[in-house]
Amino acid sequence: MEPTNQKFLERVVSQKALQMGSSFPCQICVVGFLCGVCLTSLFLAVLTSVGTFGFTGISFSSLSMGNSPLNSSSEIIKLGILEFPVKLSQNLIDGLMHGMMDMIQGYVITSSDYQSKVKETARWVDSKGREPESDDDERVSLLTEAWGALLADREPEESEFSKRFGLSKSSLPNTPHLENCKLSAQVNKRLDTRSGAGRFPPWTTWKGSLNMYPATETDENLRSFKDQPVSDGAYPPWIVGSDEENYPLTRKVQSDIWIHQHPVNCHDPNIKFLVADWEKLPGFGIGAQLAGMAGLLAIAINEKRVLVTGYFNRADHDGCKASRGSWSCYFFLETSQECRDHAFELITNKEAWEKGTIKGKDSYKSKEIWTAKVPRVWGDPWSYLQPTTDINGSLIAVHHKMDRRWWRAQAVRYLMRFQTEYTCGLLNVARHAAFGKEAAKMVLASIDRDWPKVITNQPKSEIEEFVWSNHRPWVPRPLLSMHVRMGDKACEMKVVKFEEYMELAHRIQMHFPHLKNVWLSTEMQEVIDKTRSYPHWNFYYTNVTRQVGNVSMATYEASLGRKTSTNYPLVNFLMAVESDFFIGALGSTWCFLIDGMRNTGGKVMAGYLSVNKDRFW
């Protein structure tokens, strides 16, 4: 049996080593002290043991723990040229070694107490000098909030911005998910306006901002090319994709509608007008209003009249400011300002009414508007629509209203061809709320890690200003848009549960396994709540009060107010148009029109999965 004092020494040394391993202030000193204790203990053990020693050749070995081949009663310790056969306690050795290792581990890794103190007083960096995740989160939050401040209704002054964020506006990195709305509006106005002497807009092969490239103003050949009239092969710049990626003849039809709606001389006595307010009966949603205006545009084309829209009740709110009560709050007008002014002059002219130079919506019966004869100017291109709509697992190739589906798509595409600066701003706010933090993480991963302490301001190159600026804002792709219509719509169509929409989403994901992002639009809070049951999907949606229970759409919209009840559906509509895939209900006019916009926006081959069919098919 080992002496009592030896056991006591083992226990004391081991306990002290463990304690000192978790006490940071003493760690540096204890390293040297404990090594001295270890060596002293070893030599004491040697002196009190019976054994012999002798000189041998130089040899070195290391003490190992756990898998040591040495037995518990005797060890061979080789130090320099002295070899000591020593009888030591395994417990003593283990106690010493465990104490040393725990102390060293405590010094390198640090104890939990020390870590908490460090977090309060300093910032950690890893072996590459990078700041920790918590610091990255701070930078992401700073950048996200700074970007958001620029989207406010009243953009802060430079001094106010600097005081709030400690940054200048010019020091902010590029915003990939936001659009330069002022620049876009300027470019679009140029593309939607005849220039001097009735010349056609610059619909050339030069896209977007390149039409404003200053070098073309000094080069005679380039300027001549830009100013030449549109050719038969040119197409409107608001159409994306080839003929095969859109409904048949979309590019030609859009070009012809624009020409029809923008005569060279609006005061020509042969020009006739159809002036009509947007439908404003209670209970009519934006979808119904668009469907009605599509019918009026068909009548105008059939009768060779220029359509001029009047009062739009949904734009009658403070957000629209100068264009209050007008479609031009959200989208470019359907005709030139010159034609509008002349048409409104003729409204008060009795002779113009008698001659038929001008007509109004009251000149036609309701049925003539809602079931207007589709223009046959372009033949019957709807007869060869590509079957890309899926209902119950089957493609719909033919139905009774193919002509109306094709025409409404063309009409709505024209009416929504260019967004105003206000609508562009609404989309920026929505994208920033949904994707701003992800965009900030991407940007911060690509710039100096010391931002905002180190800021490198580089002037924009020409390729950034005139070429890359034409790219659409970033969104996480692939993106699936899903419009879940429930509530009082049950009186018009078959309403299905959210779970059935998600079954269709899973079908898409089976073919495109990288799909996980969903832009969800719905008026029902229960749908939003059910998204928690699908943790492997990323759901994005607008922050708006939704229905709890079953109330009419008119009552729900009234509770939101005119501004919100108009803005948020239009944002959802346009986000659905830009998404890679779409799931909806064709029995809903809103979904019907989204489908039409997608099919005239280069999305035909993305297909459309519907939970039901249109009630008129």
From TrEMBL:
It comes from the Eukaryota. GO terms for molecular function: alpha-(1->6)-fucosyltransferase activity. The chain crosses the membrane at residues 28-55. GO terms for biological process: protein N-linked glycosylation. Keywords: Membrane, Transmembrane, Transmembrane helix. PANTHER family: ALPHA- 1,6 -FUCOSYLTRANSFERASE, ALPHA-(1,6)-FUCOSYLTRANSFERASE. This is Alpha-(1,6)-fucosyltransferase. The lineage of its organism: Eukaryota, Viridiplantae, Streptophyta, Embryophyta, Tracheophyta.
